[in-house]
Design goal:
alpha+beta; 5-stranded antiparallel β-sheet; 25 strands
C-alpha cells in the first residue's frame, strides 16, 4: 500500500488514543450502571478515529476501499452505542431488551451493504480515486443506502439527546449538572454531523471523529469533576427510592426537588408532580419543621385529620454545595404508628415462635457457636430424659452421643460449623443409658452473615427402625424362600413352554424332536425319547444334546426288543412297570449292568453320563413310551424335585401325543363319514327316485284298489322322509366343513313371512294348530337366499307345530332394525328346560319326550348353519310351561 502525509492524521490519532483511554477507565468501573454503554461508545469512537486517520493517509485505491469499510463500521456502531449509553444512563434498560434486534439488525445490514457496495452500488453510486490538493482522495457520491444510514444514525442520536435532556429536566438538583453534561456531550457531534452532511459548513475532512473526541473530553470532565460513573442517579433509585423512611429534598428557597415513595405514602401525596412546588403548600404541618435547628433530634408532628391522622418523626439535615453554601434541606420522615405496628408484630412473632418451639412434635435443641446447649423444648426432654435446666450449658456431644459414635458426632458438628445443613439417621444415648433411634438435622443459624449457632432437630424413629429390622428379618426369610422358589418358578415356566409347544397339533416326529430340545434347554445335558412298538418293545424316535457335537455320540436307532432283559434295559423296565427310574449317581457298576452290548458300552464310554432319570409317557392308562434325561459334562446330579418336574413334563407330553392319536382317529372317522355321505347322496338317492316314480305311477291309476292306494301313499311318505333325511345329512356335513354356500339377493321381509306362512299352513291345519302372522308396519329388504330361508322357516315352524298341542297357536313375525331384521317363531307349547337350551344346536341331539322319534335332531343345527352363513345370529327365549320363542336375524340389504 502507498501512504501520504495528511495534516489531520495526528489529531485523529490523538482522538483515538483519548477515546481508548476513557474506555479503559470506564472498563475499570464496569459494574456501575451505564458503564457498559460508555465503554462501547468510546471503543467505537476510537475505532472510527483510527480507521479514518489511516483512510486519509493511504494513497492507493485498494487501501482506501478497505479502510472506508472499516471507517463506516465505526461510524455505524457509534450511533448505536450513543443510544445504548443514553438508555442505560436514564434507567431505560427495558427498551434495550425489547428493541435489541432492531438496534443491531439495521447496522449489521448497513455494514453488509457497505462491504458489498462494488456489487450493487447502493451505498455509493460513485467511488473513485482522484487527486485533490496534491493528495490522493476518494470522490464518492452517496446513494440511498448512505442516506438511510444517516437518517437512522440521526434518529438514534436524537433519541439519546432527548432521553438525557428529559432526565436533566426531571433530575434533582444534586444530579442535574451530570445530566446536562451528558446532553452537551451528545449534542456536539449531532450538530456537527448535521452541518457536515447538509454542507452548510465546509470541513477539510469529516469532523465526526474529532467531535466525538470533544464529547469524550466532556465526559472526561464529568467523570473526574462530577464523578459521573460513581454518583449516577441510579444510586438514588437503589437507596432513596427503597428506604422505608420518607425522604423529602428542598432547595434553598423551600421548594420541593424530590420526594421518595415512602414520603408520598406517609404524607398521602399520591402520584402528582411535586417538583418546584412550595413546601408549605405541599407538606402542610411539616412546613414548620424546616426551621428546626440541625442536630436537635427528631420533631414529632401529627399528619392528617380524623381517622387518617398519625404521628410522624421528622429529622432535618442541611445540604451544602462544594463551597459550603447552604443549597437545600433534607427531611427524613418516620411514621411512628408504623414503628409501633412493627414492634407489635415483632412481639407477636416472638410469642408465636416461643409457642411453636414448645409445641412442635420434634425434639429441638438450640446450640451456640461452640455447640453448647442454649435451650431445648419439651419433646427433646421427653426423648432423652434431660430437663431443660439440666441440659443448658453442656456440650451436646457429651450429653447424648454414645462413646462408640463420638467420631460421628464430631463429624456432624464439623459439617454444621462449616455452614452446611446436615442430616443423619443414627442412635443417641438417653439419660438412663439406653439408646434410641433418631433422625438428626443440624441446621446452622446465621446472623449478619456469621454463624451464631445451630438448630439440632431430633425426630424419634425408633418405631420405624424396629419395623425396618422386623421387615429386614422377614425379607431375609423371603430371600431364602425365593432362592428355592426361583427354581420352581423357572421349572413352571419350562412346563408352561412345554404346554404351549404341545397345545398345538402334535406332529409325531417333529413333535418328539422339539420336546427333546426343550427338555435339554432346562432339565438335561441330553435327552432320549423312545416309543413303545406294537409288539411291546421300544424304539428311539428323538434325541437332543446341549452340545451339537455330543449329539453325534448318542445312539439314534436304539431298539429294545419285547423279550429284552428289563434289568439291563432300563427303558424297557420303565415302560413295563409304569414307574419312573432315578439314578442320582452313575457308577461303574451301573454302567457295567446297563451296557448290555458293545454298542451301548461304547456309547456310555463316549458320553460318560453322571446322573439320569427315565420317566414313562402314560396317557389314559396307556404307556406310549419313555423319556430319558441325563447329565454328563455339566457334572450336575438329579434329585427328587427334578424327578417331579420330569414326571409332569412326561404327563403333559403323553396327553399331547395321545390327543394327536385321537385327533388322527377322529379325522379318519370324518373321512369315513364323508365317504358314507357320498354313497348316500349318490347311490341311495337313485333308488329313492325310482321308488317315488313308481309310487306316483300307481297313484295316478284311478282304478287302483283302496288298500293298494293307501300302501302306495305310505311308500311315498317314507321315501320323502328318507329324501329329507339325506338332504339334512348333506347340509350338516357342508356346515361342519364350512362349505355351505348361500346366494343372497334383496328380498322383502314381508314377502318371506307370507311365503313361510303359506308354505306351513297345510301342516298347521292337519295338526289342528292355529298359524298366525303379525303384519309389519314397514317391510325392509334383507340380503337372503330364498330357498335357504324357507328351509329355516320350515324347520322352525315345523318344530313349533310338532311340540305345540292341538288347539295351540304358532305365530310368525319380524322386528326391523337399522342394520338387521329379527325374525321370530313363537309357540304356546311346553317350552324348553333350562338345562336343554345349550344343547339344542348340537347335531343328532334330542330331548327326551313324546316327539323324540319324530326327527333326527338335525333341524336346529341346520338352521344355525344357514343363518350364520348369511352373517346373522340365531337364538331362543323360553320359559318352561309358557312356550318357546326361536329367532334369527338377517342383514338389511
Amino acid at each position: 500500500m502507498a501512504w501520504q502525509s495528511t495534516p489531520e492524521f495526528i489529531p485523529l490519532l490523538v482522538s483515538a488514543m483519548v477515546c481508548a483511554a476513557l474506555g479503559a477507565f470506564a472498563w475499570r468501573h464496569r459494574r456501575v450502571p451505564a458503564a457498559g454503554g460508555f465503554v462501547l461508545l468510546m471503543a467505537s469512537s476510537a475505532w472510527w478515529s483510527l480507521a479514518y486517520a489511516f483512510y486519509r493517509a493511504n494513497a492507493s485505491f485498494q487501501g482506501k476501499a478497505l479502510l472506508a469499510v472499516l471507517t463506516q463500521a465505526g461510524a455505524i456502531v457509534v450511533a448505536v452505542a450513543w443510544a445504548v449509553f443514553a438508555l442505560q444512563f436514564t434507567g431505560r434498560d427495558a427498551w434495550l431488551r425489547r428493541w435489541w434486534i432492531a438496534l443491531s439488525a439495521i447496522p449489521a445490514l448497513t455494514l453488509v451493504m457497505v462491504a458489498t457496495n462494488p456489487v450493487h452500488h447502493a451505498f455509493w453510486t460513485r467511488f473513485a480515486l482522484v487527486e485533490r490538493g496534491g493528495r490522493a482522495a476518494i470522490d464518492s457520491v452517496p446513494a440511498w443506502g448512505f442516506w438511510l444510514h444517516v437518517v437512522y444514525s440521526w434518529g438514534l442520536m436524537w433519541l439519546a439527546v432527548g432521553v438525557v435532556s428529559l432526565r436533566a429536566l426531571r433530575s434533582a438538583h444534586l444530579y442535574r449538572r451530570q445530566a446536562w453534561a451528558i446532553v452537551v456531550a451528545a449534542a456536539v457531534p449531532w450538530i456537527g454531523n448535521v452541518l457536515h452532511v447538509a454542507g452548510w459548513v465546509r470541513f477539510p475532512a469529516n469532523p465526526m471523529p474529532v467531535l466525538f473526541t470533544l464529547s469524550g473530553a466532556v465526559f472526561f470532565w464529568a467523570i473526574f469533576r462530577l464523578r459521573l460513573l460513581d454518583l449516577v442517579p441510579v444510586a438514588r433509585a437503589a437507596l432513596v427510592e427503597e428506604m422505608p423512611d420518607g425522604v423529602v429534598v428542598l432547595d434553598e428557597t423551600g421548594r420541593l426537588l424530590d420526594v421518595n415513595p415512602s414520603a408520598r405514602r406517609i404524607l398521602s401525596l399520591g402520584e402528582a408532580d411535586l417538583v418546584a412546588r412550595p413546601a408549605a403548600e405541599v407538606l402542610g404541618a411539616l412546613g414548620g419543621t424546616m426551621d428546626q435547628e440541625v442536630g436537635a433530634g427528631p420533631v414529632r408532628v401529627e399528619v392528617g385529620t380524623g381517622e387518617g391522622a398519625h404521628l410522624v418523626d421528622v429529622r432535618v439535615t442541611t445540604l451544602h454545595d462544594a463551597r459550603g453554601r447552604v443549597n437545600g434541606r433534607l427531611l427524613v420522615l418516620r411514621d411512628v404508628g408504623e414503628t409501633e405496628r412493627r414492634e407489635g408484630a415483632l412481639a407477636l412473632q416472638r410469642a408465636f415462635l416461643e409457642q411453636l418451639f414448645d409445641a412442635t412434635p420434634e425434639g429441638l435443641a438450640l446450640l451456640d457457636e461452640s455447640e453448647q446447649v442454649l435451650d431445648v423444648n419439651p419433646e427433646w426432654s421427653r426423648l432423652f430424659g434431660y430437663p431443660a435446666d439440666e441440659a443448658r450449658g453442656r456440650q451436646i456431644n457429651d450429653l447424648i452421643v454414645p462413646d462408640h459414635l463420638r467420631g460421628e458426632g464430631a463429624q456432624i458438628t464439623a459439617q454444621v460449623a462449616s455452614g452446611a445443613r446436615t442430616e443423619a439417621e443414627t442412635v443417641r444415648r438417653r439419660k438412663d443409658g439406653s439408646v434410641t433411634d433418631v433422625h438428626i438435622t443440624g441446621a446452622p443459624v446465621f446472623a449478619r452473615g456469621q454463624r451464631v449457632g445451630t438448630w439440632g432437630i431430633y425426630h424419634d424413629i425408633s418405631e420405624r427402625k424396629a419395623q425396618e429390622r422386623a421387615r429386614a428379618a422377614l425379607l431375609e426369610r423371603e430371600r431364602e424362600a425365593r432362592a428355592a422358589a426361583e427354581t420352581a418358578t423357572r421349572r413352571a415356566g419350562f412346563l408352561a413352554d412345554v404346554g404351549t409347544l404341545l397345545s398345538a397339533a402334535f406332529v409325531r416326529q417333529a413333535g418328539y424332536q422339539e420336546l427333546a430340545r426343550l427338555a435339554v434347554a432346562e432339565l438335561a445335558d441330553y435327552c432320549l425319547i423312545d416309543e413303545v412298538t406294537p409288539d411291546g418293545g421300544t424304539r428311539r424316535v428323538a434325541l437332543a444334546h446341549r452340545d451339537p457335537r455330543g449329539e453325534a455320540l448318542l445312539v439314534p436307532d436304539a431298539v429294545n426288543p419285547p423279550d429284552g432283559d428289563p434289568e439291563r434295559r432300563p427303558v424297557l423296565q420303565v415302560v413295563r412297570t409304569g414307574a419312573p427310574l432315578l439314578v442320582p449317581e452313575v457308577t461303574d457298576d451301573v454302567i457295567s449292568r446297563l451296557g448290555h452290548d458293545d454298542r451301548t458300552r461304547a456309547a456310555f464310554t463316549r458320553i460318560q453320563p453322571r446322573s439320569f432319570i427315565i420317566v414313562p409317557l402314560i396317557a389314559r392308562g396307556r404307556t406310549l413310551g419313555a423319556i430319558t434325561l441325563a447329565y454328563d459334562h455339566s457334572g450336575r446330579r438329579y434329585g427328587r424335585e427334578d424327578l417331579t418336574v420330569a414326571q409332569e413334563m412326561a404327563r403333559r407330553a403323553a396327553l399331547a401325543i395321545d390327543n394327536a392319536r385321537l385327533y388322527a382317529e377322529a379325522q379318519e372317522a370324518v373321512r369315513a363319514r364323508d365317504s358314507v355321505l357320498g354313497v348316500v347322496s349318490h347311490d341311495l338317492r337313485n333308488p329313492l327316485a325310482a321308488i317315488l316314480l313308481h309310487a306316483d305311477f300307481l297313484l295316478a291309476d284311478p282304478g287302483l284298489p283302496a288298500d293298494a292306494r293307501e300302501s302306495a301313499e305310505q311308500v311315498v311318505r317314507g321315501a320323502e322322509a328318507m329324501e329329507r333325511m339325506i338332504r339334512d345329512l348333506l347340509d350338516v356335513a357342508r356346515i361342519e366343513a364350512g362349505q355351505l354356500r348361500v346366494e343372497a339377493a334383496p328380498l322383502s321381509a314381508c314377502g318371506l313371512l307370507d311365503q313361510a306362512a303359506g308354505m306351513m299352513m297345510p301342516l298347521a291345519r292337519e295338526r289342528g294348530t292355529a298359524l298366525e302372522q303379525v303384519p309389519l308396519a314397514e317391510c325392509p329388504d334383507v340380503a337372503a337366499d330364498f330357498d335357504r330361508v324357507m328351509q329355516v322357516f320350515s324347520n322352525l315352524v315345523g318344530n313349533a307345530l310338532k311340540f305345540t298341542p292341538a288347539g295351540g297357536t304358532v305365530t310368525l313375525g319380524a322386528d326391523p332394525g337399522p342394520r338387521e331384521v329379527r325374525f321370530w317363531v313363537r309357540d304356546t307349547g311346553p317350552g324348553i328346560a333350562p338345562e336343554h337350551v345349550e344343547r339344542l344346536w348340537e347335531s343328532f341331539w334330542q330331548a327326551d319326550g313324546p316327539a323324540r322319534r319324530a326327527g333326527a335332531g338335525l333341524g336346529l343345527p341346520i338352521v344355525r348353519g344357514i343363518v350364520e352363513a348369511h352373517g346373522g345370529r340365531v337364538g331362543v327365549d323360553t320359559v318352561p310351561g309358557e312356550g318357546a320363542d326361536f329367532w334369527f336375524t338377517l342383514p338389511v340389504a
